[in-house]
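Private note to self, pasted from the team thread so I don't lose it. Backbone tokens:
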């Protein structure tokens, strides 16, 4: 759908969105030897140690659901035909949290907290692939 909102690409997050278009999930990692933590969302310095040197690193795309919600009233009309939308907070095995949606929603009575997921890329927006997650068999 062409009237969908687009991600706001800027110099700080451009590498993230470019990697998504290549089918790769990259997040920043602190270059400070005493820290080396993965960082997401894209930033100009490490939120843990303050180091201003971050490198884009490919990550696995594997993780687990930390929390979720079902969206029945989307904030943009172009998503109305897709409700309910399962929106999840996923903790990647590398550590950071990513917020996205599930491509295979479970039954509405399911509690999916702690369930494993893996990354998939969606082409829901023309010109930009988006990182979504697939719930794995329990």
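Design output:
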């Amino acid at each position: 759908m062409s009237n969908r909102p687009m991600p706001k690409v800027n110099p700080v997050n451009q590498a993230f969105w470019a990697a998504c278009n290549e089918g790769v999930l990259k997040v920043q990692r602190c270059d400070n030897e005493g820290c080396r933590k993965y960082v997401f969302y894209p930033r100009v310095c490490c939120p843990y140690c303050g180091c201003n040197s971050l490198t884009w690193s490919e990550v696995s795309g594997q993780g687990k659901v930390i929390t979720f919600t079902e969206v029945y009233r989307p904030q943009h009309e172009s998503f109305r035909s897709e409700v309910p939308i399962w929106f999840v907070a996923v903790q990647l095995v590398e550590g950071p949290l990513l917020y996205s949606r599930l491509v295979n929603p479970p039954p509405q009575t399911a509690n999916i907290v702690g369930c494993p997921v893996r990354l998939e890329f969606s082409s829901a927006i023309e010109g930009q692939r988006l990182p979504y997650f697939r719930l794995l068999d329990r």
